[in-house]
């Protein structure tokens, strides 16, 4: 599945974020941008897999409805963290404060990247024949 391939490829780059100079505004901005892309790829992969499973609610195309449906379908899925990611992804266009950006990057490194990795592993476990 091409969307999942893109998800994994982008994630491999995002996982390297902790090795960068986290006091550099350009690097911080790049990490936030990569996070936004990763989030988009993640909910779209979920949407496609939920549709494959026959879910009608994922057909709306709304990230919020896809996240809520994924939470109901997949026991491993942390809907609260993904809803927080949605909010922060939506708010990234309004981050004008360097300190707020650093706080978001810290959350990306400590909370969000591990969730992206967890999703990758769990989806491979469930859908190996479809995804790989």
What attributes does this structure have?
Four Helix Bundle (Hemerythrin (Met), subunit A), mainly alpha, 75% helix, globular, 0% strand, 132 residues
Class computed from helices, strands and strand pairing? mainly alpha
Q: Write the CATH fold name.
A: Four Helix Bundle (Hemerythrin (Met), subunit A)
CATH architectural designation: Up-down Bundle
In helices, the fraction of residues equals over 70%
Question: From the alpha-carbon coordinates, what is the Rg to the nearest angstrom?
Answer: 15 Å
Number of domains: 1
Percent of residues in beta strands: under 5%
Largest sheet: number of strands, sense, barrel closure: none
H and E order: HHHHH
Alpha carbon gap, first and last residue? 7 Å
Anisotropy-based shape: globular
Number of alpha- plus pi-helical segments: 5
What does this structure look like?
The mean pLDDT is 94. This protein has helices at residues 2-14, 25-52, 63-73, 79-91, 98-131. The protein is mainly alpha-helical. The chain is 75% helix and 0% strand.
Fold blueprint:
Elements: H1 2-14, H2 25-52, H3 63-73, H4 79-91, H5 98-131
Briefly, what is this?
With 132 residues, this protein is mainly α. The protein has helices at 2-14, 25-52, 63-73, 79-91, 98-131.
């Amino acid at each position: 599945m091409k969307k999942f391939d893109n998800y994994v490829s982008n994630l491999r780059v995002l996982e390297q974020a902790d090795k960068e100079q986290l006091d550099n505004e350009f690097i911080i901005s790049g990490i936030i941008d990569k996070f936004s892309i990763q989030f988009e790829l993640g909910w779209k992969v979920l949407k496609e897999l939920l549709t494959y499973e026959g879910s009608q609610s994922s057909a709306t195309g709304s990230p919020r409805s896809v996240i809520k449906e994924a939470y109901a379908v997949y026991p491993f899925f942390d809907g609260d963290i993904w809803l927080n990611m949605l909010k922060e992804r939506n708010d990234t266009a309004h981050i004008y404060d360097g300190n707020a950006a650093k706080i978001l990057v810290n959350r990306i490194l400590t909370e969000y990247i591990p969730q992206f990795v967890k999703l990758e592993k769990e989806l491979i476990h469930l859908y190996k024949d479809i995804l790989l």
